[in-house]
Every structure is written in C-alpha cells, then in structure tokens.
Amino acid sequence: MAAFRTLRTAGLALGVVLVMAGATRAQTILRDAEVERALSELARPLLNAAGLSPRSVRILVVKDSSLNAFVLNQQTIMIHSGLMLKMNRPEMLQGVIAHEIAHIANGHLTRRMQNMQNAQTAAMIGLALSAAVASKYPGAAAGLAMGTQGSAQRVFLGHTRAEEASADRAGMRYMARAGIDPGGMVGVMEKFEGQEVLNVGRQDPYVRSHPLTRDRLRAARNLAATFKQIKGTDPNSAYWYDRSRAKLAAYLQNPSQTLRRLNASDKSDAALVARATAYSQSHQIAPALAAAEQLIARRPEDAYAHELKAWIHMEARQFNASVAAYARAVDLAPNQPLLLAGYGRALLAQNTSTSNVKALEVLEKSRIRDKINPGMLRDLGLAYARAGNDGMASLSAAERYALSGRLKDASIHAKRASGLLPRGSTGWRRAQDIVHAADAQKKRKKR
C-alpha cells in the first residue's frame, strides 16, 4: 500500500491508501499530541537540512509490532511502533526519519504515481482512509485501513536499489549537516543485516520495502566514515526521544510490566509519563494523577503534561476536572488540533448548555487544523446535533464514514446532509463530494 495521489473527498485533502484485494488486516494509527510533538522535534533539524519546511511534513505512528517505516505521501511519514521502540538511541530513529525525508526530497514518489495505472491490472485498488480509532490513547484519533498483500504492497511501498542508495547518501548528508551522527543510519541497517537471506514471509517489512544488500551496507559504512565525527547527542533530541518512547511503550505494554521495569529511583520526565500512563491503564487513578502532577510541577508550561492529567481524569469519568486540565493545555498550545479535540470531547461529556456551545467552537477549530481525525468528527457531529444543526451533524457522520473507507454508508449520510443544508453552501458542496466519490467507487466495482 502507498499513497499514489491526493484525493479531495468532502473538501478534505486526504492521502489515498491502497486496499488490495484479499487484504487481511487493518492497522491502527496512534494519534497522540505528545508523541507527534516528539517526532517533530526529532525531524525538525533534518527537514531544515533537506531544505523542507518542518511544518510541511508530519510523522505518524502505526500500531504494529513489526519493523517498518515508509512515506505515505509528500507530507506524511509513517513509522511502525515496533520500529520506534526497537531503536536504541535517538540517532537511529533520526536515521530512519532522515532516510524517509530523502525519499520525499528526491522525488521518489513520482515513479509510483506514474506506474499506478499499470498496477491497477494486478490488484483492485479501493479507497481506504482511517479504519480504526485508538480511543483510549491520550489524544487518540485515527487509523488507516492498510491492507497487506505481498506483491502489490511491494510495488507501491518498495523502492529500487538505486533509490535506496540515493536516500542513504542524502539522509546521511542531512544528518551531518544537522549535527547528528550519520552512524545512526548505519546502526539501523545493521539491525536488519542478514535478513535478505530469509524467505519473504520471515523478513521484517522494512527489508521488503527497503532492499538491503551487503554492498549497500558496506557503502553506508564507508560514507559514514567520511563525515567528521560527531560526539554526543543533542539534549533536546534525547529528551523527546526518551519521553515519547516511554509513553508509547507504557501504552502498548501490560501496565504491570511497565511498572516493574521502571526503577523506583528514576524520577525523569520520561519515567513520570510512563508511570502516569501505566497507572491510568490499570485504573489506578490516584498514583496516575500523582505522577502527572509531579510532571506539571516540574514543567508548568508544558501543554502535554496538562493533557496527560486531563486524559487521566477523562478515563476516570471526572469530566469537570478533565475540562479544566484540557483548558490549561489549550491555553498553552492553542492551535494543537489533538488537544482541541480532547478538550471538545471533555466539554461534550460535561453536557451542559454552555459546555456544548464551547465544544462546538473548539471542535470546529480542531477540524480546520486536522481533517483526518474520525474521533473528532464523531464528537463534532454530536456537537452539531445538540446545537440543532442536523445537516452539519449528518455531514460530520458522512466524512467520518468516508475516512474509514465506508463510502456506501458515507453516501447515505451525505445525501441526507445535502437535503438539509443550503444548496451551494460549503457544507452542501462537501456532502456532494462524498456522494460523487461513492458513485465513482460503485462504478469501478461494476467494471
């Protein structure tokens, strides 16, 4: 699966993902404001070194224990949680990011777009966006239905050996230019050394989509040796690397395992985040809040520390406290869409006339900044319904179904929205876009 073009459905710029005939599974994307902030901090110096705007590319985490990373489109890099947790130091994770940035900067997606027509004869291509929601993750929001079928997957995700060598060279230059040890990329390759001799079913997906040969590894080692030796890790990169991996591991692992692993003497911010997450996952609200409060006391201007507290209260159904904590988080980061989405959900949970009006306001603001968040669209639909705007409530439902690839259901709600909204209005046009996309899919299936 891979992005091959940008489709405007319901007025949204959405990356299109392939669902191959016979696809057997969908993969969840873990949307979390803190983790995405960490990845943006790790990527920022590399994007600057590549001549790309840090605001133009975002990195999302796929909930998958296998090791993989790939470019979804010109604006999105996907990293499997398994790969993120397997990286031993920040420079290795930045090596992965630098390599994928190089694929974007070097225009390697263009070839796939040009070859898309040929691939249509080999596999049925369907629309699939956002298949599952990780609703219990702080700020969790979206998923992509990404079918996996060997040959078709390799056609779209796979890079040629020439592209891989090019991305290695460019990525290492970006790392050196940013003051990051290029040996981190070599360390990633060494993780996969020897996998080429395994049969395809036993290989990590990263090796299948990023062909690794002995010659390529040798060339990478030689290239890394040519750069001036860079000693030490940037403290900011180390901080966000530790904090994001601690949170991700605490969410994905059994809470008791996380708590046993943490050293009682470890009072770092990363340890506090891990403890708060693990305690909340095991419904131990008091110690979870205590850890979050320690983090806030240490970093009172950290929006993500306040979000962590808000999420714990929300999980405990302490809605008033959750609203207060989310309000503080949004004060500190007023344009962060996942924080706004969480704030809106907490306000809806309060369910007062005042909170419902405020919820609609903040959820609309969240949608403007992040249109591919089905959890936000669900809550936005509820907010519209409580405001008596059934047309926009139906439109939100239609957009949410469209994101999950359920265009038949999306069309039903979009047609209802079209009948309720003023003809020619922005909302009406968004609804019509969904109806047309559903009709086009129906025609493709008949062929």
UniProtKB/TrEMBL annotation:
Keywords: Hydrolase, Metal-binding, Metalloprotease, Protease, Zinc. Coiled coil: none annotated. GO terms for molecular function: metal ion binding; metalloendopeptidase activity. The keyword Metal-binding applies. It comes from the Bacteria. Residues 31-223 form the Peptidase M48 domain. The keyword Transmembrane helix does not apply. InterPro entries: Mito/Outer_Membr_Metalloprot, Peptidase_M48, TPR-like_helical_dom_sf. GO terms for cellular component: membrane. It holds the Pfam family Peptidase_M48. GO terms for biological process: proteolysis involved in protein catabolic process. Its cofactor is Zn(2+). This is Putative Zn-dependent protease. It comes from Aliiruegeria haliotis.
